[in-house]
Amino acid sequence: MKSIKITSLLVTALLTVSLSACGGNNNGNNSAATNSPQNSATPAESASASPSESTDTSTGNPVTITVLNEGAVAIGVGKLDDLFAPKEKELKGKGVDVTYTPGNPVAAFPLHYQKIIAGKLHEKNISVKTEDWGWGEPLIQKETAGFLAKNVPDIIVGETQMPGFAQQGLLEPFPDDMAAEIRENVSPAAWKPMEYDGKIYGLASQPGVSSLYWNKKLVKEAGIDPEKPITSWQELADNAKKVTEAGKGKFYGGGVYAGPNFGGYLRYGALIGINGGSYADANGQPTFNSDANVETVNLLRELNAAHPAGLMVNNTEGTYFDAWNKGQIAYLIDGPWQVQQCKDNKLECGMSPIPLSPNGAAANVTIGAAFHSVPKDAKNKDAAFEYIKAMYSKEIQQLIADSNVRSPILKEIAEAPDYQQKHPEMYLHYQAMNGNVQGLPTFAKDNSKVWQVWGDAVVKSLMTKGDVKAILDDAQKKAEQITKQ
């Protein structure tokens, strides 16, 4: 992959409009995107700038690293060791069981996640101080300001903005031996989206990818075998139509959310990948009007007819998932959190890999993945990489396996003989993480504008009878005018 060469001015512009985090309105307790700001420290206030806490690990002296919070595992802001007792007291007061034995269900997941991390780092004389810079656009803006001021935490975290940071040379590549260990032992979904020019720049300890879910009750009412997985795009379109006809306005076939935002791009991006299409090429230039993309958008058009008018492209993804949770649509492409959410909403759901197009192959897009990276200007890089090593350690990955909300990324845990038997749905998710998995691309210039051109074109394709190829040709021209200025 070739590097994208732009001036420092354009770097600033690119980062300012980087993609906001997504895929999180419906991913349960383990969603990074559920994080709400607790302490919106500015980069200038970052504890990573404190000389007293920046000690060379080669001396063997204590080191304190600063890590940005991830909502899925956050327990507060401050010195990690000082947060455990108050968090335990808080959880006990709510009746939450704070005990955990590996191999058994876990209730206080974030607490034990951070305890394991802290314990492993203590062995190396490293302690952790957490900061909360929020999530989504506020996080991106603060990270961007931190990069420009060369004042950043030792570990930053984010979702769709992170590959762009790597491409702009703002992140430290993982050490070669660490990268080799990850490639051999860790699921590609955890690191492949953060690979650039042969180097790895980030890791997610519990990423999500999408699968197909269906409401067995609605499917059965349409005369379809609720136990039989769908394997082809045509079957998905046909079944969605049958359910819609059987529902007579009370329920619909559904399929996938396709709103003009990152929630939509992430979810139907898996269909684009399956069909051999893409949003952008290796140089960050749009590839909107490829034959593969035209075929995929035509499928989306068919599925749109199996929804209430406007629901599939609603600007607010929560509206779409409310319909699913209320049993109003039968099919859904979404992340692994739906396994638990189906149970919570008393829906009997089936789960299978996403169906394939006639000439397609399995592919997916990470969703709800909180990638952790070490900035180029971090003051404690060695210690920061020790933190990331702890994230894919056997202890942390066993904890994730026991939570049964995300699947572990460590092959040793996920491929153990009893894992498939104890966690069949999460094992299916693990298998989906091991194929062709990518993140959303970063365009060469003005990400937000280019993505909006694409989103508007898809909405127009779904909501009108216009020729899809012509609509995407027009979108391609508009996008090129932005990226090639």
Question: Which helices and strands appear, and what pairs or packs with what?
Answer:
Blueprint: H1 8-16, E1 63-68, E2 78-79, H2 80-93, H3 109-122, E3 126-131, H4 136-149, E4 156-158, H5 162-167, H6 176-185, E5 195-196, E6 199-200, E7 211-215, H7 216-221, H8 233-247, E8 252-255, H9 262-274, H10 291-304, H11 317-325, E9 329-334, H12 338-344, E10 349-352, E11 363-365, E12 371-373, H13 381-391, H14 394-403, H15 411-414, H16 419-422, H17 424-432, E13 436-438, H18 447-463, H19 468-483
Parallel strand pairs: 1-3, 8-9, 11-13
Antiparallel strand pairs: 2-3, 4-12, 5-6, 7-9, 7-10
Helix pairs in contact: 2-3, 3-13, 3-14, 10-18, 18-19
Fraction of helical residues? 40-55%
> What's the CATH architecture name of the largest domain?
3-Layer(aba) Sandwich
Instruction: Count the domains.
Output: 2
Number of helices: 19
Region (Disordered): 29-63
Organism: Paenibacillus glycanilyticus
Biased composition (Low complexity): 29-59
Family: Belongs to the bacterial solute-binding protein 1 family.
Task: Give a quick summary of the entry.
The strands form 5 sheets. The protein has a 4-stranded mixed beta sheet.
